Amino acid sequence: MSAVEREKDVVDYDQIGRNYNRYRVPDPRIAACIHRGLGRAATVVNVGAGAGSYEPTDRRVVAVEPSATMIAQRRTPGIEVVQAGAESLPFPDAAFDAAMAILTVHHWADWRQGFREMRRVARRIVVLTWDPASEGFWLTQDYFPELLTIDRPLFPALEALCAALGDARVEPVMVPSNCTDGFLGAYWSRPHAYLDAGVRGAISSFSRLSDVDSGLRRLATDLDGGHWHRRHGHLMDRDSLDLGYRLVVWSSES
After folding, report:
1. Phi/psi of residue 170, each to 5°?
2. 221, 141 in Cβ contact below 8 A?
3. pTM of this prediction exceeds 0.85
4. Of 94, 191, 209, 245, which shows the fewest CB atoms inside 10 Å?
5. Is the pLDDT of residue 15 over 50?
6. What is the band of 70 on the pLDDT scale with cuts at 50, 70, 90?
7. pLDDT higher than threshold 70 for residue 14
8. Could you tell me the CA-to-CA distances from 140 to 10, 184, 199 in Å, in that order?
9. Confidence of residue 1 (pLDDT cuts 50, 70, 90)
């Protein structure tokens, strides 16, 4: 997919991001994974920062975010915010110890250029993304298969992502059953949540679907009739699940 084609697929967070700070509450277990990835970095730039999720509070952080709506919802007052895109970071070379990009790379018009910029301004890079080789889970398999069709071309393949960075470490990020950060896979053990328009409004993938209602009707019917629980009720015994989310860590010193 070319940069021009990707530009057409970039979600307009000024339109859909109005209630992100209500539903996208950073999960402390995922935060711990990200902060371990940052290592001892004292200065961090958060690229595609959104409302500020997962920004560490014990280091100097500068946030970069193109959407004014997302900037207005930030939870971290006092942190410098720059309205800009990942592809052209307004900082000098090696300005930061680390750069982080959390569930954002698939929204960039040119992720390779974004990575070049991150490598230019930071000596360490931490990226949380989704592996498009993942088989998905019951929501995308049974009710919204179009989500996989849409999302897979948008997310960089892990092999391509690591090749763009160099020698990077990849580790799975398990999604807790009571995950507080309402991204697409967060409610895998709470299926009724996907029937909530507010929940869906904080998940960018739903904004790309051509037909949401038919999948919601099937899900509601299966929940009411017990079909969902017969097929997937065993998941209720799990504390966490691997849904294909991956933390990628690169360091110029490795």
Report:
1. -120, 130
2. no
3. yes
4. 94
5. no
6. confident
7. no
8. 21, 10, 16
9. very low
Give the domain 3-251 fold. Rossmann fold (3.40.50)
- Per domain, the residue ranges of the chain are 3-251
Q: Could you tell me whether strands 124-130 and 245-251 are parallel, antiparallel, or unpaired per DSSP bridges? A: antiparallel
State how far the alpha carbon of 81 is from the alpha carbons of 61, 64, 72, 114, 176, in Å.
9, 6, 10, 18, 30
What is the average pLDDT score of the chain?
A: 91
